[in-house]
Amino acid sequence: MRDKIGVLDLQGGVQEHLTHLEALGLEPVRVKKATDLDNLAGLILPGGESTCLARLITIFELRTPIIHAFSSGMKIWGTCAGAILIAKTIKNETPHLALMDITVDRNAFGPQVNSFQETALLPEIAPTPLTLTFIRAPQITHTGTHVNVLHTTNGTITAAESAECLATSFHPELSGSTAFHRYFAKKCGLVVSSSVSEVPLTAWTQKTKISK
Amino acid sequence: MWLEKNNKTMENSRYTLNAQLAQMLKGGVIMDVTNAEQAKIAEEAGAVAVMALERVPADIRLEGGVARMSDPEMIIEIQKAVSIPVMAKARIGHFVEAQVLEALKVDYIDESEVLTPADEENHIDKSKFSVPFVCGARNLGEAARRISEGAAMIRTKGEAGTGDVVEAVRHMRTMNRDIRVLCALDEEEVVPFCKNNGIPQDIAQKVRELKRLPVVNFAAGGIATPADAALMMQLGCDGVFVGSGIFKSGDPKKRARAIVKAVAHFNDPEMILEASKGLGEAMVGIGISTMKEEDKLAGRGW
């Protein structure tokens, strides 16, 4: 049964996503191998270094399994670097997983000096304003016909969704709000019983049990 | 935000954003490289960033002399060669080297004990810069002082250029133990603990609230094998720096890839086993116990 959400756990802001999902009572799965994708309702591609993440997906032979799982119904959400990984077109770069009909421009807001925070109301996601954190963020410069724009920042698209995908230029996992994770869980067809709306931003080391 | 009151010129959000940028490096391997070709090998192997420097620590030890910031041209070559972040080292306290590196638009500056210190009392006031800094530390006090000065990322020092992981383990265990002790103290015991360990009060309160350092903490100094890297990850670091361990080994390409594998799968002994096979010669290394105290780099920094 497809009742779990996975987080690609190769590099980047993995624990932050896991913490948000756990707060919503959704036992998330760490995805390190192809078999971890079995029966996932949804997969989050976290923020990290997109070049590095793309390399690791190739090195660990996860590209084809992710594409397969996606075509058999698994929903995907890419945050920041994750959004770059799922884009069908990337400015001046070969696309990676090419799952969503958007064009992205890497680091389009500029270098780290231009990273910023924005507080904005996204009516589809939450009734109250959310803190959006942009870190060397990509811009979505074009969306395909079946892609809805969820948010624009100073005129550029920074959140979009299709029936199968969600892409955010910013990092909802760096704020305490669980609104985006709740939204994605619903998109994956999962029932979220927890009413938790804020998580403390404490845990981030990836200490896990040693596998057998 | 929490550093607001200590920051003189840097707006608090800049610091938070820099710490969050470093947060995105978690689970990654940062490799020392000395030219564009090595940088490409590192990127290809799955490194999350490269550290551009003229001589790896093992060679600095061998050749001696004053170790300084690298030639900017060599850093520019490396910046051109890769799309992953490029870090570079400035001497402890040498704020002009840091200014030069910031002007060069490196992604991070490492105020590093591997280079010869330029100031034996003071570190760089990192809050004056917009570029994020990473600094070495052996314990919580040292880490907290660097964070107070504006470091957005900490790495345990270990003993660079030795290929002996013992100091990296000591520093990571010390850091974790210090944090556990601080978090277990009664409120009235915090001030004396901070006094004895040279920990700024506001940083101590933040550590007690988060039960960890407020910035990411990578392991560094002496990591030479996939098992070394996974050991540090299991001890609770957020990622790993590998200095001389890769390009001083028999087969850098293979070893770089193997260390990346071992870090991504640090809690899976089967994967570490696979990664450890047939890597050729590891760097020769120097046993810490045979070294003279004055030859150790970790003591630099205050």
List low-confidence stretches of chain B: 1-10
Q: What gap, in angstroms, lies between the N and C termini of chain A?
A: 25 Å
Order of helices and strands of chain B: HEHEHHEHEEHEHHHEHEHHH
* SSE topology string of chain A: EHEEHHEHEEEEEEEEH
Strand order of the largest sheet of chain A: 2-1-3-4-12-11-10
Which second-level CATH architecture of chain A applies?
3-Layer(aba) Sandwich
| Helix share bin of chain B | 40-55%
CATH class designation of chain A: Alpha Beta
Task: List unreliable stretches of 5+ residues of chain A.
Answer: 208-212
Shape of chain A: globular
Q: Proportion of β residues of chain A? A: 25-35%
* Overall pLDDT of chain A: 93
Q: Compute the number of strand runs of chain A.
A: 12
Instruction: Give the full name of the CATH homologous superfamily of chain A.
Output: Class I glutamine amidotransferase (GATase) domain
Please outline what is shown here.
Chain A is α/β, with parallel strands linked by helices. Chain A contains 5 helices and 12 strands.
Give the tags:
heterodimer; A: 212 residues; alpha/beta; Rossmann fold; 7-stranded mixed sheet; 3-stranded mixed sheet; 5 helices; B: 302 residues; 8-stranded parallel sheet; 13 helices; 8 strands; 44% helix; globular; disordered N terminus
